[in-house]
């Protein structure tokens, strides 16, 4: 110890001796604390008698075990954060993309959808394609530096793509895949005007869907006639996710063209949804475009509900956190989801989301049945929760990678942990014969009447019986949601575990979905080997699944989450600060 240090210690000891109150038998401070303790005990006792709930809320934190802050699962021995590219794995995803694209180009160039086993394409309407596959895939080519392929795709867009097509096109799908694809192609190509011109033409044809009494969009559109069409199969109702998942695209287009109409139409939908707010913060999956109200229908994070929650957060991110209304709506929704939908499985305590199904009694009363069903679609939610935790749940404005406990609010910590756990659950649903996860899983609950093989684990595929054709739930249709969450989780934690998980999924896709002659196909039962294929390669395989896998292994400086927001079809748009005064700014 140095002389200075020694002198300081002696000074401290002397100060201790000379300062402080003289010793008394009952120091004032301890009398004060006793009085305070007495008052606190008295108040709690009083409350316990007259309002036990409030009393429990006050004292429960001292009795309920609090979750230990473990920001990421153990990283299999690798502790340092390494965000550099894993080149061999990244290049393997490029090779897979080429295998998919070149087969499509050979067999079906320009058609909306591809059937890799029959080597054929097909269109959504008889009047011709709308670039469903080409446009959805082009930004992945830009990212992968597939310049020749991108040039050929551009050529097709310049010379063949037309939106003057009769038929019923789904408003949401056309927006997220085609409009979204054109807008990100515009940005990533360094503002090639072709893409913006096409985007504007398409958006102008879609706009009439918003001309309803409420402003909620109709589900379908005839692009040639520029006319909205209601969905007769669903009594004219529009699904909540579909109505509330057009906003990133129309708002970015508004920024690029300086035309406020796109912004206003998209924002009006959010205003209507805000106005019909349900007390739980949750959203039923159907709304009525006539009066703008929620219709009595299921509540879930899966189909028709999923991207409503995703876009609440992403709208807040898109405009650089400048519209607090989305933060309030998102936080409110997350409170509802975490309180009412998130459950733990019986055996391994896996975190999953259930659905609420409304039931009407003979007397007309409504009750809600909690159903332990989780769509593969829900697997986007793990990453989304983590992204939300560091955004609306940040206590300090900026958080570390991975976040420290003191950098997040209580809600932020809750959502982060739930997100991490949900990703683990989604990975457990890949514990199948193929290593691929099914379209829908059910979790075990008491008295569910399941026996046999399903009884052994926490989850099962409903209706799967040996010797019978597999149920719809057993399929894997090349969906991206789990790898989307892995990509976000890796970027927010730097934990290699997420790359390992992604690689395992990629290997299963290579082994079981790859068609030797070109392309990839869905499998009809993830629990059956050898697999049976379905003759379809969904467009989101090239636009989302392979893109997120590529970005998972790419250097994290590429398309950083601090500067980009991905639309629900994985098309990245830059984050901006709105130049116009928005309805919610
Ligand atoms: C994609 O088209 C989008 O991610 C959408 O939000 C939901 N489903 C598919 C992929 O599974």
At a glance:
With 585 residues, the protein is mostly helical. It is built from 18 helices and 18 strands. Strands 3-4-5 form a three-stranded antiparallel sheet. The chain has a three-stranded antiparallel sheet with strand order 12-13-14, with no helix packed on it.
Question: What's the topology here?
Answer:
Layout: H1 3-18, H2 28-50, H3 52-63, H4 87-108, E1 113-115, E2 120-122, H5 132-144, H6 147-159, E3 169-170, H7 171-188, H8 193-206, E4 220-222, E5 227-229, E6 238-239, H9 240-243, H10 247-257, H11 260-275, E7 286-287, H12 306-318, H13 324-341, E8 342-344, E9 351-353, E10 355-360, E11 366-371, E12 373-375, H14 380-391, H15 410-428, E13 440-443, E14 459-460, H16 481-493, H17 496-512, E15 522-523, E16 533-534, H18 539-553, E17 564-566, E18 572-574
Antiparallel strand pairs: 1-2, 3-4, 4-5, 6-7, 8-9, 10-11, 12-13, 13-14, 15-16, 17-18
Helix pairs in contact: 2-3, 4-18, 5-6, 5-7, 5-18, 7-8, 8-10, 10-11, 12-13, 12-14, 14-15, 14-16, 15-16, 16-17, 16-18
The structure holds 1-deoxymannojirimycin.
């Amino acid at each position: 110890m140095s002389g200075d240090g020694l002198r300081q210690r002696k000074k401290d000891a002397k100060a201790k001796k000379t300062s402080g109150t003289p010793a008394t038998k009952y120091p004032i401070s301890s009398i004060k604390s006793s009085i305070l303790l007495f008052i606190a005990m008295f108040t709690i006792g009083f409350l316990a008698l007259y309002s036990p709930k409030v009393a429990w809320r006050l004292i429960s934190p001292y009795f309920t075990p609090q979750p230990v802050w473990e920001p990421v699962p153990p990283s299999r021995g690798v502790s340092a954060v390494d965000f550099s590219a894993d080149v061999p794995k990244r290049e393997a995803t490029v090779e897979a993309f080429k295998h998919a694209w070149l087969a499509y180009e050979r067999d079906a160039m320009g058609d909306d959808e591809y059937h890799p086993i029959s080597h054929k394409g097909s269109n959504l309407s008889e009047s011709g394609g709308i670039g469903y596959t080409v446009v959805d895939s082009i930004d992945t080519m830009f990212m992968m530096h597939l310049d020749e392929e991108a040039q050929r795709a551009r050529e097709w867009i310049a010379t063949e793509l037309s939106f003057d097509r009769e038929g019923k096109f789904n408003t949401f799908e056309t927006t997220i895949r085609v409009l979204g694809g054109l807008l990100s192609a515009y940005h990533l190509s360094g503002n090639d005007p072709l893409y913006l011109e096409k985007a504007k033409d398409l958006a102008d044809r879609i706009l009439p869907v918003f001309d309803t009494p409420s402003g909620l969009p109709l589900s379908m559109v005839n692009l040639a006639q520029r006319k909205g069409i209601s969905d007769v199969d669903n009594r004219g109702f529009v699904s909540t996710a579909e109505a509330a998942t057009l906003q990133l695209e129309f708002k970015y287009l508004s920024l690029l063209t300086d035309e406020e109409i796109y912004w206003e139409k998209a924002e009006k939908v959010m205003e209507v949804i805000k106005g019909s707010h349900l007390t739980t913060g949750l959203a039923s999956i159907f709304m009525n475009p006539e009066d703008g109200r929620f219709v009595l229908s299921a509540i879930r994070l899966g189909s028709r509900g999923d991207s409503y929650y995703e876009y609440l957060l992403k709208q807040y991110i898109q405009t650089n956190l400048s519209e607090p209304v989305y933060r309030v709506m998102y936080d409110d929704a997350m409170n509802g989801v975490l309180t009412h939908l998130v459950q733990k499985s019986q055996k391994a305590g896996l975190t999953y989301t259930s659905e609420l199904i409304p039931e009407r009694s003979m007397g007309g009363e409504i009750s809600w049945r909690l159903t332990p069903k989780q769509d593969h679609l829900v697997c986007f939610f793990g990453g989304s929760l983590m992204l939300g935790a560091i955004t609306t749940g940040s206590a300090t404005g900026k958080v570390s990678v991975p976040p420290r406990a003191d950098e997040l609010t209580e809600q932020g910590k809750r959502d982060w942990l739930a997100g991490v756990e949900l990703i683990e659950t989604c990975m457990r649903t890949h514990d199948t014969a193929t290593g691929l996860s099914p379209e829908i899983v059910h979790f075990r609950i008491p008295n569910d009447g399941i026996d046999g093989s399903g009884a052994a684990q926490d989850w099962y595929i409903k209706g799967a019986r040996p010797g019978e054709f597999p149920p719809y739930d057993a399929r894997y249709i090349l969906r991206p949601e789990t790898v989307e969450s892995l990509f976000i989780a890796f970027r927010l934690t730097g934990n290699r575990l997420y790359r390992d998980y992604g690689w395992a999924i990629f290997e299963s896709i290579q082994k079981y979905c790859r068609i030797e002659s070109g392309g990839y196909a869905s499998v009809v039962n993830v629990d059956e080997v050898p697999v049976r294929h379905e003759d379809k390669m969904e467009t989101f395989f090239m636009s989302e699944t392979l893109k997120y896998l590529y970005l998972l292994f790419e250097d994290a400086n590429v398309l950083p989450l601090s500067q980009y927001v991905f639309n629900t079809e994985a098309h990245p748009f830059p984050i901006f600060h709105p130049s116009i005064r928005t309805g919610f700014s």
